[in-house]
From TrEMBL, chain A:
A Pfam match: BPD_transp_1
Region spans: Disordered: 1-26
InterPro entries: MetI-like, MetI-like_sf
Family per similarity comment: Belongs to the binding-protein-dependent transport system permease family.
Keywords: Cell membrane, Membrane, Transmembrane, Transmembrane helix, Transport
Protein name: Sugar ABC transporter permease
Biased composition range(s): Low complexity: 1-10, 17-26
Keyword Cell membrane: yes
UniProt topology in membrane: Multi-pass membrane protein
Entry's transmembrane regions: 33-56, 89-117, 129-153, 173-189, 240-260, 280-305
Residue ranges occupied by any ABC transmembrane type-1 domain in the UniProt entry: 94-304
UniProtKB/TrEMBL annotation, chain B:
Membrane topology: Multi-pass membrane protein
Name of this protein: Carbohydrate ABC transporter permease
Ranges annotated as spanning the membrane: 24-45, 77-100, 112-139, 145-164, 202-226, 246-269
Sequence ranges assigned to domain ABC transmembrane type-1 in this UniProt record: 77-269
Keyword set includes Transmembrane helix: yes
Taxonomy, superkingdom: Bacteria
Species: Microbacterium wangchenii
Family classification: Belongs to the binding-protein-dependent transport system permease family.
Matches recorded under Pfam families: BPD_transp_1
PANTHER family found in the cross-reference section: INNER MEMBRANE ABC TRANSPORTER PERMEASE PROTEIN YCJP, MALTOSE TRANSPORT SYSTEM PERMEASE-RELATED
Gene3D superfamilies named in the record: MetI-like (1.10.3720.10)
Length: 313, 285
């Protein structure tokens, strides 16, 4: 799968750069290949290996224990037929789409952009303070961030205590609104990335353009939507894809906060794959879910390469 | 910024209210980001820490002294160091070796390789953990620290090769040509000339991979079982899960001890890379 995707994207040929000028010496090509060997072997064994294994394993009835663990049988597309007939899978796929759309595409991107804009116009000490806080939430190990947010959304947690000050009654957020909780948590955790991308992009917008638009009578909103956004268009699309890919793989945050529950109410695809494979011991079935997730990731990754294509290699 | 003299005429009068509004909005968002972080800090110093954020009645180091035992903290942290160092060393060595021919020569399969690498950086690795588990069963690598190290090295290689190639591209090739004239081989040129010139870049990649491995929970969670092998990320989770009523103060203290090195390393990377936007910038390619 990787192979096909890379081949189709690697079609364009460009005359080489570097040094073709060096006089030939025996074994030179061999030395180059030797130098590439350790990385290539690692990538083949532990990146391509699991992907190929994923494709194959999803066609078997491998289980965690019992005879099907030692001697899994090839069962063709039975896992997929079962998967596509399972309401849990479709729920999980839907939850994954909601999670990615709400927390990454909308939440992190919009908040990241807002922060980047605010950071340019707010007073100075506040800028570095808030910028630092947002980045700190991103730098923390994921499990620590997950604990902090678990405590925040808990029934007797900070959020409800805060609502209590205003006479509002809180609820068991993690139980009744598990998706909302993990979406907000992922926004808290991941917005720093978009903020930094947009901060860098905004600093490269030529000030003359903004000034010219101002002179032409454009308001702040018009300047932003008609001048700034089109100029940083590429950063936006790149960032959308990267945050999508990052969010597609989020496991720890959800696992710690809700365990994918209650039931499977917050089981996105990576969580569901883990549950099926390890809690219910259906490794083959879990592998099929993993394969679907990988395929979705592969599609986005391929789009990402297309967008970057003019500037790579 | 608000008093910038460059922005005269039309825009100047609107700057002030805009600054005030921006600052208020920014402060509100800042508070929302601060509260969960403050909870960790306050709870870690609170003898009677609860799940709600509050100022400790009396500040105490008791939580820290209670978790600072060999089994609970030091061994898991040591395991984290071993795993992260191992991963970073393997990744950087294999990454530099691979980046060199990719940066210096043009090879037939180079473009395919680079696209493959870029494709690899985009894949959701967490989605792979079930097949990786099955693969590790076949390899007999389950519960092996080295298995975890090698797997994490492989998954961080695409990003590392990408970053290292970019750093290497900015080392002028003319310096090596001089060395070649003097009869040095390509590996000698790499070791004597290229690597010393890009040591900052290598440092950034090293720390980047190290922190990724340090913060990784899912991979060791799936692949390791023996408690003496577990890195801090997993042992902290077990600690959290084992108790019916969670000892929040200790959990917070433990979290601070585990998170502190990452924050320090991040600051170090910022210094190394000149303060700008090192990690995310490199992700953009």
């Amino acid at each position: 799968m990787t192979a096909t995707a890379t081949l189709t994207t690697g079609g364009r040929h460009r005359p080489g750069r570097g040094t073709p000028s060096r006089p030939g010496r025996p074994g030179r090509m061999a030395a180059r290949l030797l130098s590439l060997l350790p990385a290539t072997l690692l990538l083949l064994a532990f990146m391509l290996g699991p992907i190929v294994y994923s494709l194959y394993g999803s066609l078997t009835d491998r289980a965690m224990t019992g005879p099907r663990a030692a001697d899994p049988q090839f069962i063709g597309f039975a896992n997929y037929t079962e998967l596509f007939a399972s309401p849990d899978f479709w729920l999980s796929l839907g939850l994954t789409v909601v999670f990615v759309l709400a927390s990454a595409v909308i939440g992190q991107n919009v908040l990241g952009m807002l922060l980047a804009v605010l950071l340019r116009s707010a007073v100075k000490p506040l800028r570095s303070l808030v910028g630092g806080l947002v980045v700190l939430a991103w730098v923390l190990p994921e499990i620590v961030a997950a604990f902090a947010l678990y405590a925040f959304f808990q029934t007797d947690g900070t959020l409800n205590a805060f609502l209590g000050w205003f006479g509002l009654e809180g609820t068991s957020w993690l139980y009744y609104f598990p998706m909302l909780s993990v979406i907000l948590a992922n926004i808290w955790r991941g917005t720093a990335f978009s903020m930094m991308v947009y901060n860098a992009a905004l600093s490269e917008v030529p000030p003359e353009l903004i000034e010219a638009a101002t002179i032409d009578g454009a308001g702040a909103w018009q300047r932003f939507t008609r001048v700034t956004l089109p100029v940083i268009n590429r950063s936006i699309s790149t960032n959308l894809l990267l945050t999508t890919l990052q969010t597609l793989g989020v496991f720890t945050l959800i696992w710690v906060m809700t365990g994918g529950g209650p039931g499977t109410q917050s089981s996105t695809l990576p969580v569901l794959a883990f549950q099926e494979a390890f809690k219910f011991a259906q490794v083959g079935y879990g592998t099929a879910i993993a394969t679907v997730t990988l395929l979705i990731g592969a599609v986005f990754s391929a789009i990402y390469i297309r967008i970057l294509k003019p500037e790579v290699v | 910024m608000a008093t910038s003299t460059a922005a005269v005429s039309v825009s100047a009068p609107r700057r002030r209210p805009q600054t005030v509004l921006s600052s208020i909005l920014l402060a509100v968002i800042g508070v929302l980001f601060l509260v969960p972080l403050l909870w960790i800090v306050f709870a870690s110093f609170d003898g009677d820490a609860q799940v709600t954020m509050k100022l400790p009645g009396t500040w105490t180091l008791e939580n820290y002294t209670q978790v600072m035992t060999w089994e609970l903290t030091w061994q898991p942290l040591l395991n984290s160091v071993v795993i992260s160092l191992g991963t970073a060393v393997i990744t950087v060595v294999a990454g530099v070796l691979a980046a060199y021919p990719l940066s210096r020569y043009s090879m037939r399969f180079q473009q395919t390789f680079m696209y493959g690498i870029l494709f690899g950086t985009g894949l959701p690795i967490t989605a792979m953990m079930v097949p990786v588990y099955a693969l590790f069963v076949s390899f007999g690598l389950l519960d092996s620290v080295w298995g975890v190290v090698v797997f994490m090295a492989a998954t961080s290689l695409p990003m590392a090769i990408w970053m290292l190639k970019n750093f290497m591209d900015s080392v002028p090739i003319s310096l090596e040509e001089a060395a070649w004239v003097d009869g040095a081989g390509s590996m000698q040129a790499l070791g004597r000339i290229v690597i010393p010139l890009m040591r900052q870049g290598i440092g950034v990649v090293f720390i980047f991979v190290f922190t990724m491995a340090w913060g990784n929970f899912f991979v060791p969670f799936v692949l390791l079982f023996t408690s003496s092998n577990l890195p801090a990320a997993v042992s902290i989770f077990n600690f959290f899960g084992q108790y019916g009523s969670v000892a929040y103060g200790q959990l917070a203290a433990y979290s601070v001890l585990y998170a502190a090195p990452m924050v320090l390393l991040y600051v170090l990377v910022q210094k190394l890379s000149g303060g700008a936007f090192a990690l995310a910038g490199s992700v953009k390619g």
